[in-house]
Every structure is written in structure tokens, then in C-alpha cells.
Known about the structure:
Blueprint: H1 4-22, H2 31-44, H3 57-86, H4 101-118, E1 128-132, H5 139-148, E2 153-158, H6 161-171, H7 177-180, E3 181-185, E4 200-203, H8 211-224, E5 230-235, E6 255-261, E7 270-276, E8 287-288, H9 321-328
Helix pairs in contact: 1-2, 1-3, 3-6, 4-5
InterPro entries: Nicotian_synth, SAM-dependent_MTases_sf
EC number: 2.5.1.43
GO molecular function: nicotianamine synthase activity
Amino acid sequence: MDSLQEQAILVEKVCHFYDKISKLETLKPSKNVDTLLTQLVLTCIPPSSINVSTLPTNIQEMRSKLVRLCGEAEGHLEAHYSTILASFQNPLHHLHVFPYYSNYLKLSLIEYNILNQHYSAQSGPPKRVAFVGSGPLPLTSIVLASHHLKDTTFHNYDIDPLANSMASCLVSPDPDLSRRMIFHTTDIMDVTDELKDYDVIFLAALVGMHINEKVKVVQHLAKYMEPGSILMLRSAHGARAFLYPVVDPEHLQGFEVLSVFHPDDDVVNSVVISRKNPVTPNIDHRHHHHHQLGIESSIMPSSCKYCEFQMFNNPLNQMSMIEELGTDD
């Protein structure tokens, strides 16, 4: 448990980085931008008991602005590498060019296994999955579709037509993924009855960067998703909340929260998995640790695009996922 003095030092450091980052002329990838963001992330990674919602108003306002700046920088980074990948004849054969591709392999493996623990259907794996906020480099969808859900159709939603155009260019040369990955340029708030068609919906961390915005999206999904379908979200806990929005179980009205996963190692994002339920849910606000999920901290992925973490021993070898990825790659 960190002391109040340690928390004060942490906040002071974060404010220092915010001051520098907010004065940058651009957040597009460069040595200076990458260095500052890497230092910020490394400052926020160590487990902390800090609760950002209890901080003074001016610090909370700074945090909201910092989350938006990090999101903007992340968007520029993805667009930059999507452009590079599009220059190849077969972009999906060169995904390793993106410096944090290995993190997406780990992240997708973990989310796939967590999903498997809670998704049950007599007809087998989910047939139709939606990813909301897929962006110009939809690596989560690509990795899941390529390695884990090989018969599933992925519907990727993004409000930015340029992002969808860039993403589509990456998969169009691939005969399999071009058939199973569909891109929709629309505000998810304008999508209604179609949401009932999806077995699983992923909500990207940066869709709704202020909690009020995210809650509106969640309420919309709760209204139109099919009862029994799964909603997966990424959140943040402790000092990591200076980097990403926080989703608390009470924000998920209309859903049964199945588990809330707070990492205690180098993983940035928490994972929240919930199920749309027609009856009043008996919400279980369980805060799982790695051993409770059968997942060791050493192989957990980082969704942070500014730090690459080494992959150690994998306790999920019985599922042969890592070997499969190596073979496919």
C-alpha cells in the first residue's frame, strides 16, 4: 500500500509530464513524443492504491486532458504504421513492423481465453463479433480473426472514414480476412437493431474518453444488444487511470458483470467482461488476480503502445496457442 506521500510524488510526476506533453506542437510519432509518453507510462505502471476519483478537482481535470492527449498520440501512432504497412503487397504478412505487434498477440490470446470462460453457446464459437472503435490499425480484430476465431465474421465500427479506409487497405489483399472483416463508418450511437446480430461486442478503451461519454455508449449498447450477448471493455486501475478511462461495474447498468480483472504487473489495462441480461442482474463485483484466472502475470499483454514488455513462460501452453501463433507467423 503506497503512502500519501508516495501518491503525492506520483501526482507531481504525472503533472510534470502533462505539462511537457501538452506543450508539444504535435503528438505524431517522433523521438521526443515517444520518449515523453514512454516515461509517463513507466511512471504509471507500478501498482498503486491511488483512486483518481478522490483527487482534487484541478488534478482530475488535468487527468481528463492527459487521457485525451494519450488517445490522440495513440491514434497518430496507429495511422503512421498503417500507412507503412499499406505499402507492402501483402500488409498482413508484415505486421511485425509495428513495434508492439507482439503485445497484441499476447493481449488477444488472453482476451480470447477470458472470453472462452464466459461465452457459452451450443453452436460453438461466436459467429459475429463487433469491435467498436477499431481505428486505422485494427490489430485486435486481425489477430483474433487470424489465430483464434477463424470462422467468425468481424464487424469493425469507426466514426472516422479515413481510419476505416486505411484499415480496409490492410485486409483487402487477404482472401480470407477480406471476406470476414467488414468496416462500418458510422457513429455507434446511430446503430440500433443491427447490434442484436452480434454474439460479442468489444468496446475499445478510447471510445468515450470521458466517463460520461462512455456511459452513454454503454447505455446505448444495453438498449439494443441481444440478451445473453457479451460486452468486453478495457478499463484502468490505480495510477494507470492517468492513461486510460476507468469503467466501474456500476457504469454497466443493464449488464451482468462477470468479472473485473485488475492486473498487478506491467499490464496497463484492466478487463471488464459482462453479459446483457433481460433480468435484474445479481452483479458480482469480483476483482480477480492473475492466478484466479489461471493466467500468470508474466505473460499478460500490455495495451500500452509505448512500452514493449518481454514475454516470459506461458502457463497456457496446454492450449497450444503460442505455438500456433509461431507456426502461423
